[in-house]
Amino acid sequence: MHDFIARPEHGVVWITGASSGIGRALALKLAAEGYKVAVTARSHEKLVELQAEARGLSGSIVVLDGDVTDAEDMEHVMASIEYEHGTLAMAILNAGVYLPVHAEDLNRADFDKSFAVNLSGVVNCLLPAIGHMKEKGQGQIAIVSCVTGYGGLPTGAAYGATKAALINMAESLKFDLDKIGIRIQLVSPGFVDTPAAGKNAFPMTSVISVEAAARQIAAGLKSQAFEITFPRRFTTMLKLARLLPYGAYFPLMSRVTGWRERPPSAGHHPATPHPAE
């Protein structure tokens, strides 16, 4: 028996962090395929612009403002989908923030905001989404993590920690969700050309556009795969690198990122905007 795959006729797709980057491109991609897409972010203006851009597509975009760090807000968004727009068929929990962390210049706010958005923000959406899907007896959930969750990388102490937690969360939830007809997937992109990626303190390889990322994710959502990861060669190399003993892993990552030659950080680094702002 195959797992549930959400089609346009099954109901609404909910995407968080949809005002920019991967979330925005994916909303347009799915709307073009005929889905009714509910988009959530904190920037009403950007969501309205996104909705206008989708006019003329075979599907549609519905604007539902909200802050993923506010659990009550996400309950209200879920209620709006259920009572005003239809059955929630799929939730794509994409909102995230990348705040580079340097050990010689630690800032508690970087950790607090990273955990609030990237980790608690997912939980705040998962609870109402799963509650709705459980009543319907079916549904599909995609949690957007990142390959930085595979292993420690320079400046990733906060961001990478949240993404590693999301990987473990998705893996752990799968055991029980399978039993109640809810399909969960993990999205682990490599480096994507987004505003957040521009803040990386080391050279990135195999960078792809947000449109290419959206195509990969859209295709993966229709597959039976648990993990949607791309570009495959690059992400596989990172997975294999994590199998190395630490004595080999740290020198390899230092060399690949150029971190060994980089001088210590001199001051606090500015925050990267939340994709939902």
From TrEMBL:
<dbReference type="Pfam" id="PF00106">
    <property type="entry name" value="adh_short"/>
</dbReference>
<protein>
    <submittedName>
        <fullName>Oxidoreductase</fullName>
    </submittedName>
</protein>
<dbReference type="GO" id="GO:0016491">
    <property type="term" value="F:oxidoreductase activity"/>
</dbReference>
<comment type="similarity">
    <text>Belongs to the short-chain dehydrogenases/reductases (SDR) family.</text>
</comment>
<dbReference type="InterPro" id="IPR002347">
    <property type="entry name" value="SDR_fam"/>
</dbReference>
<dbReference type="GO" id="GO:0016020">
    <property type="term" value="C:membrane"/>
</dbReference>
<dbReference type="InterPro" id="IPR036291">
    <property type="entry name" value="NAD(P)-bd_dom_sf"/>
</dbReference>
<keyword id="KW-0560">Oxidoreductase</keyword>
